[in-house]
Design a protein that fits this description.
Blueprint lengths: L6 H13 L23 H16 L3 H14 L4 H13 L3 H14 L4 H24 L5 H17 L12
């Protein structure tokens, strides 16, 4: 799906409910009141490349952002902030496998990293929405599975992240 395309038309109300807080109108980094931070050790060059990449991300120029972030990573290897934004950019281009890998590396380096956890969750939503689209493309063969997955997504969106006992939900 192209960035900015209506999720309502693509996936119905459940898709919209799950993703309305994921995308800005143009598919760029949504403004949630806080910009990604940089806690780097690669000096001014890595920090400058990171800041330039954030500008590209804000303009939905993800390929350029990835190039800049990879350069920054070579100067400050193992920086979870850089890895997180690499993952974000890859996800916005639809490269979920790469995104999951970068998010995993970022979270290994900084397990308590709210932005990476949020974006990782959004990547899982993207993956679920892709599965819905695939099931819909199966026609009658995928109708029941599509309805089941859509129902699970609606319940997840409505019910939060825990069951009545406070335990994490399992679908």
């Amino acid at each position: 799906m192209r960035p900015g395309r209506s999720l309502l038309s693509a996936f119905g109300a459940a898709g919209l409910a799950l993703a309305m807080w994921t995308l800005a109108p143009d598919g760029a980094l949504a403004d949630r009141g806080a910009q990604p931070t940089f806690r780097g050790g690669g000096g001014d060059v890595a920090a400058g490349l990171y800041e330039e990449a954030l500008e590209k991300i804000a303009d939905a120029r993800y390929r350029k952002a990835i190039k800049l972030l990879k350069k920054a990573s070579r100067r400050d290897s193992g920086n979870p902030d850089i890895l997180n934004m690499l993952a974000f950019s890859e996800r916005k281009l639809g490269n979920l496998k790469a995104a999951f890998s970068y998010y995993g590396r970022a979270l290994e380096l900084r397990p308590t990293f709210p932005e990476a956890r949020e974006y990782l969750g959004e990547a899982h939503i993207d993956a679920a929405l892709r599965q819905l689209a695939l099931l819909r493309s199966y026609g009658e063969d995928g109708k029941q599975a599509h309805a089941s997955l859509l129902d699970a997504l609606k319940r997840a969106a409505a019910g939060g992240d825990a069951d009545a006992t406070g335990q994490p939900r399992s679908w």
